[in-house]
């Protein structure tokens, strides 16, 4: 039995009923069309090993649901020209959203993962009920823009800061939102939209997004460290998210890096996050400037700190040196435990620029024997949204397309040349 799977004793064979087998066969046929379309029914039989009557029934069902379309005829090999089939990604859509601080970003994507509309707004997150209502309104606006109403909505993926409890569908320990106790976000959204809702930590989603389309593409063992209003990390091991026993893997903001105070309480920000997040650095800049810096926007704090350091202002240089060193400590801790191939730095830490990145690399080289490659992430604010689309699609594709084993006839499909494959009529 695979690790993490639930069930009976090892070696126990579960009975499979006709309904389950039909669902498995349907997944095989749909996967074959997605991977190899345009494709004929005969070719589907060769690929999947299913009988033509079974193929005919499943294809008829998929066409009726709009998931598959007939697009014309292929080249004849002597008999009746075959009708070709393609996957229709616009048959349904998924919604995706990410929430950080007072910023809410959402998008709608088709079943190929193509984002077709996006919106963002500022929201009041101090009261969870208000934040959820703002999220619902924004998602409703996107549904209205895409047309067809909720009947075409397949699933929703949501990224949240803090700990996303996948099993319970709740969010807790999200200091940037002020949500400490568990908030039943999934239950609220599923009750309203009547579709599956998947919750995930926002930095985990950024990691998935960079792995799919960004600076982590193809890197199976990947860590992303995000420095924003808070600090968190996303971890991929063997191309899969690692969440830990209680969904709290990557909560590096709680690392014991920084000045310790006996007055700390359990509900305070994590020590590392308190001192070295963009919010923490903004407060420390104001304190170090001695009243000469009345207000610092956390969103631009690191850029401003680097600017003052380049002007050789002593407190700014000392504070930036301290921040860079401790960011490197966090990367070193992750590298020693996980030994990733690559570490991506994302969020406001990118404001430190190439000079800051080189300094982190230099610190790291002196801290660990085998330092990973360190670079900045590339997708910016869209990374989380790309990841949220991915988890929503995974909820629709059961199992996800990427997890399906090779089809029985894959590699043996005798396809015509590109010239012969032109459609006719």
Describe this structure in words.
There is one protein chain. By secondary structure, the chain is an alpha/beta fold. The chain has three domains: 19-88, Orthogonal Bundle (Arc Repressor Mutant, subunit A); 93-207 and 383-396, ATPase, nucleotide binding domain (Nucleotidyltransferase, domain 5, 2-Layer Sandwich); 218-378, Nucleotidyltransferase, domain 5. The protein is 38% helix and 19% strand. It has twelve helices and 15 strands. The protein has helices at residues 18-36, 41-48, 52-64, 128-146, 185-193, 202-213, 271-276, 278-288, 301-310, 314-338, 353-365, 382-396, and strands at 39-40, 68-73, 83-87, 93-100, 103-110, 115-122, 153-160, 163-165, 170-172, 197-201, 222-227, 231-237, 240-241, 342-347, 373-376. Strands 6-5-4-7-10 form a five-stranded mixed β-sheet, with helices on both faces. The chain has a five-stranded mixed β-sheet with strand order 13-12-11-14-15, sandwiched between helices. It has a three-stranded antiparallel β-sheet with strand order 1-3-2. Helix 11 links the parallel strand 14 and strand 15. The protein is elongated. The termini are far apart.
Short overview:
38% of the residues lie in helices and 19% in strands. By secondary structure, it is α/β, with parallel strands linked by helices.
CATH class of the largest domain: Alpha Beta
Largest sheet, spatial ordering of strands = 6-5-4-7-10
CATH architecture of the largest domain: 2-Layer Sandwich
Rounded mean pLDDT is 84
Q: Beta-strand level of the residues, as a percent range?
A: 15-25%
**Alpha-carbon distance between the two ends:** 51 Å
Report the count of strand segments.
15
- Low-confidence segments, given as residue ranges, are 1-13, 416-425
Quick one: CATH superfamily of the largest domain? ATPase, nucleotide binding domain
Rg: 25 Å
- Structural class assignment: alpha/beta
The total count of helices amounts to 12
Helix content: 25-40%
Domain count = 3
- What is the string of SSEs from the N terminus onward? HEHHEEEEEHEEEHEHEEEHHHHEHEH
* Largest sheet geometry: 5 strands, mixed
The coarse silhouette is elongated
| CATH topology term of the largest domain | Nucleotidyltransferase, domain 5
């Amino acid at each position: 039995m695979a690790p993490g799977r639930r069930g009976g004793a090892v070696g126990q064979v579960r009975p499979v009923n006709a309904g389950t087998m039909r669902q498995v066969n349907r997944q095989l046929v749909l996967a074959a069309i997605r991977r190899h379309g345009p494709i004929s029914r005969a070719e589907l039989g060769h690929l999947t090993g299913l009988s033509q009557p079974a193929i005919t029934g499943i294809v008829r069902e998929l066409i009726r649901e709009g998931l598959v379309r007939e697009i014309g005829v292929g080249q004849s090999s002597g008999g009746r020209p075959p009708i070709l089939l393609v996957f229709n990604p616009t048959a349904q859509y998924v919604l995706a959203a990410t929430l950080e601080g007072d910023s809410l970003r959402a998008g709608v994507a088709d079943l190929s993962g193509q984002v077709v509309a996006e919106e963002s707004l500022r929201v009041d997150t101090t009261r969870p009920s208000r934040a959820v209502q703002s999220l619902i309104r924004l998602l409703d606006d996107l549904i209205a823009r895409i047309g067809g109403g909720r009947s075409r909505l397949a699933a929703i993926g949501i990224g949240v800061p803090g700990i996303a409890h996948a099993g319970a569908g709740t969010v807790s320990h999200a200091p940037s939102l002020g949500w400490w106790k568990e908030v039943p976000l999934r239950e609220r959204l599923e009750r309203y939209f009547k579709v599956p809702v998947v919750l995930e930590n926002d930095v985990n989603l950024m990691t998935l997004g960079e792995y799919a389309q960004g600076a982590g593409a193809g890197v199976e063992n990947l860590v992303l460290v995000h420095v924003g209003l808070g600090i968190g990390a996303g971890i991929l091991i063997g191309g899969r998210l690692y969440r830990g026993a209680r969904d709290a893997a990557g909560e590096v903001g709680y690392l014991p890096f920084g000045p310790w105070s006996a007055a700390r309480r359990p509900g305070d920000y994590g020590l590392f996050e308190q001192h070295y997040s963009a919010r923490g650095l903004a407060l420390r800049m104001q304190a170090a400037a001695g009243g000469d810096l009345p207000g610092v926007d956390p969103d631009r704090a690191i850029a401003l700190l680097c600017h003052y350091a380049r002007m050789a202002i002593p407190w700014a240089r000392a504070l930036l040196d301290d921040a860079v060193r401790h960011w490197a400590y966090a990367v070193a801790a992750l590298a020693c435990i996980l030994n990733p191939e690559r570490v991506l730095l994302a969020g406001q830490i990118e404001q430190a620029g190439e000079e800051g990145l080189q300094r982190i690399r230099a610190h790291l080289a002196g801290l660990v024997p085998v330092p990973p490659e360190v670079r900045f992430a590339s997708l910016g604010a869209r990374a989380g949204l790309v990841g949220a689309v991915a988890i929503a699609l995974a909820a629709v594709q059961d199992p996800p397309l990427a997890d399906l084993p090779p089809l029985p006839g894959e590699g043996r499909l005798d396809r015509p040349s590109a010239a012969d494959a032109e459609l006719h009529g």
